[in-house]
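Supplementary Methods. Inverse-folding protocol.

Structures were first reduced to a discrete structure-token string of length 381. This string, shown here, constituted the complete conditioning input.
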């Protein structure tokens, strides 16, 4: 069983009376890759700064290895930070940038040890042979590696990373995701990563902490967060989701649009109103006569490996991701297996997400179905 390394207990943070973190409870294990994920302003960077000692919680306690560290300054914590802006010293070469922190240590360490540790870091971040390069001559990804090496050479127990890939282009971001996970496993230390990018969170993390409005919405593995979201916010923020109103008739049966669907969930009250999550990739397009529901295609976007198809079901628009092309205006049927239907309790996020009529600028021009809802045959639904 993993050992707890950091714990935030009942932490609240307020600025000028405005609460930005509300009663946070969070445990982080030794050697874990944990990601704080959420939209701008959700409190994830504030949480990171509290762990790093850059801010002190208004209320609550921070523990490191069982010791309360609220009043311990950043330089006395076994923590280092990599920011989105790398802040490398342009007048120093790669070796000197990485060695800088070691040269500031008291008591001083030998030049031989500094050289040994810098060269070890260059090996770990795949920059061996770059030690005398000027940092201004490096690519964005290489500069990122120098910043990581500079932080890790001090051998912290925890590395904090505040949106460190934000300045990179898409291809480099994907490459660095793999590199960061490899580096974390090689160093065998705790990484705490902040991002608003759900793909980064799912690709790298052992644990994902989804935040919104200064509150932790859900904590779990990437698989748990994706497959078993706790509320409509999490379901919408982690990947694409069709979120519709439903009635839980009984264990294993939910009613959507007046039709009963088998599902795998239970433990709800009979006839309890619920939110129903159906991922776009879990919907199968079939002939109209074979479908559980019938709708009209209103928009198609080609995404390379798949088509994103918007389908109108009596005014509620679903996103379906498929390799099968159905033209705009086509009437289609859909089938959903029981394991493709996830049931959630109603929350204050209910009704805010899941209808793709205004999904994004990409779908701004989505029109109404060519066949009006009131003119559809009653047995379509």
């Amino acid at each position: 069983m993993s050992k707890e390394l950091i714990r935030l207990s009942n932490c609240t943070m307020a600025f000028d009376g405005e609460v930005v973190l509300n009663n946070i409870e969070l445990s982080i294990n030794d050697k874990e890759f944990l990601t704080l994920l959420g939209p701008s302003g959700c409190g994830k960077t504030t949480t990171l700064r509290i762990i790093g000692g850059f801010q002190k919680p208004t209320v609550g306690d921070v523990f490191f290895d069982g010791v309360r560290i609220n009043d311990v300054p950043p330089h006395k914590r076994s923590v280092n930070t990599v920011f989105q802006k790398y802040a490398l010293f342009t007048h120093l070469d790669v070796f000197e940038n990485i060695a800088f922190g070691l040269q500031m240590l008291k008591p001083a360490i030998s030049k031989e040890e500094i050289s040994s540790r810098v060269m070890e870091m260059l090996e770990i971040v795949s920059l061996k042979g770059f030690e005398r390069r000027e940092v201004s001559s490096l690519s964005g990804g290489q500069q990122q590696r120098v910043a990581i090496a500079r932080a890790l050479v001090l051998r912290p127990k925890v590395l904090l990373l505040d949106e460190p890939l934000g300045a990179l282009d898409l291809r480099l971001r994907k490459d660095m995701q793999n590199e960061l996970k490899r580096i974390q496993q090689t160093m065998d230390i705790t990484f705490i990563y902040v991002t608003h990018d759900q793909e980064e969170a799912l690709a790298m993390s052992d644990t994902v902490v989804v935040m919104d409005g200064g509150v932790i919405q859900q904590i779990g593995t990437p698989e748990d967060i994706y497959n078993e979201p706790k509320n409509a916010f999490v379901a919408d923020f982690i990947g694409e989701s069709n979120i519709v109103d439903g009635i839980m008739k009984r264990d294993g049966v939910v009613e959507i649009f007046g039709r009963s669907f088998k599902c795998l969930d239970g433990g709800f009250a009979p006839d309890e109103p619920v939110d129903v999550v159906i991922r776009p990739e879990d919907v199968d397009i079939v002939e109209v006569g074979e479908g559980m529901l019938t709708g009209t295609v209103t928009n198609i976007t080609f995404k390379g490996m798949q088509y994103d198809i918007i389908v109108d079901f009596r005014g509620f628009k679903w996103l379906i991701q498929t390799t099968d092309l159905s033209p705009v205006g086509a009437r289609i049927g859909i089938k959903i297996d029981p394991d493709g239907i996830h049931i959630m309790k109603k929350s204050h996020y209910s009704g805010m997400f899941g209808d793709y009529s205004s999904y994004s600028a990409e779908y701004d021009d989505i029109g109404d179905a060519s066949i009006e809802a009131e003119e559809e045959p009653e047995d379509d639904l």
